[in-house]
Amino acid sequence: MKQIVDTVLESMIRGKLIQIEVSARHVHLSQGDFERLFGVGKAMTFQRALSQPGQFLAEERVTLVGPRGQLERTAILGPARNRTQIELAYSDCRKLGIDAPLRESGDTAGSGGLKLQAAGGQIDVTEGAIIARNHMHLTPEGADRFGLVDKQRVDVRVLSERLMTFQNVTVRVNPAFRNRMHIDMDEANAAGISGFTLGRILG
Predict the structure, then answer these.
(1) pLDDT tens for residues 7-65?
(2) How confident is the model at residue 5 (pLDDT cuts 50, 70, 90)?
(3) Mean pLDDT value of segment 103-108
(4) What is the Cα–Cα distance from 62 to 128, expressed in whole angstroms?
(5) Where are the chain's structural domains?
(6) What SS3 class is residue 196?
(7) 12-22+134-201: which CATH architecture?
(8) What's the rounded Cα separation, in Å, for the pair 106 and 118?
(9) Once rounded to an integer, what is the mean pLDDT over residues 126-132?
């Protein structure tokens, strides 16, 4: 089995192919904000592992509240971060009635704000709501094989029924990563992505 997997991975690298994953709206909470929402001393409850090592979906959910509407049962991803960040699609922002900038993950200075509600309380997040730029996670080995470097921008052709090319996709390189490209739900719907989908790195 390992030999088969290795052969498939080698073929993907030779073909400059990367698996595309769809990231629905979600929240990264600081430990302090998590406790304000769910109770002092509480910790995130592991539900299932995500593709990136060490990251997981928590059982807890929050409601996002904006001037125009709200989005219930929004996922929380763990582990806790230093600062709270809410990652949305453009369509989410329209429903909430907020302006969130298109940013790299972690770049939240001066970004959008909204209210978070949960069973144990609510908090006002003055900044932290962003529309995350599409990006790819690569190991150093994967980046080397693809001929890419950290923070480089590349174009990726989605191999779906509705052929689309995403331009200026940010490359992130870290030994802790697994080779994947991440896009939001709006982008996935536009490209007709459903289930396992590959993209070809151009250039």
Answers:
(1) 666 677 778 999 999 999 999 999 999 999 999 999 999 999 999 999 999 999 999 99
(2) very low
(3) 96
(4) 15
(5) 12-22+134-201, 26-132
(6) coil
(7) Beta Barrel (2.40)
(8) 23
(9) 98
Question: How many angstroms separate the CA atoms of 50 and 178, rounded?
Answer: 10
Among candidate residues 166, 136, 145, the one with its CA nearest the CA of residue 19: 136
Q: Tokens 């962003």 — which residue?
A: 130
CA distance 72 to 43: 21
Measured CA to CA, the distance from residue 58 to residue 79 in angstroms comes to: 9
Up-side HSE of residue 76: CA atoms within 13 Å toward CB?
27
Spatial CA neighbour of 112 closest among 101, 123, 122:
101
Angstrom distance (rounded) from CA 2 to CA 176:
21
Burial zone of 29 (CB within 10 Å; 0-12 exposed, 13-18 middle, 19+ buried): buried
The string of DSSP codes covering the chain is -HHHHHHHHHHHHHTTEEEEEEE-SEEEEEHHHHHHHH-TT--PPEEEE-SSTT-EEEEEEEEEE-SS-EEEEEEEEEEEESS-EEE--HHHHHHHT----EE-TT--TT-EEEEEEETTEEEEEEEEEEEEPPEEEE-HHHHHHHT--TT-EEEEEE-SSS-EEEEEEEEEE-TT--SEEEEEHHHHHHHT--SSEEEEE--
Return the DSSP state at 118: E
**Cα 85 from Cα 79, distance rounded (Å):** 12
Query: Which DSSP helix (H) or strand (E) runs through 13?
Result: helix 2-14
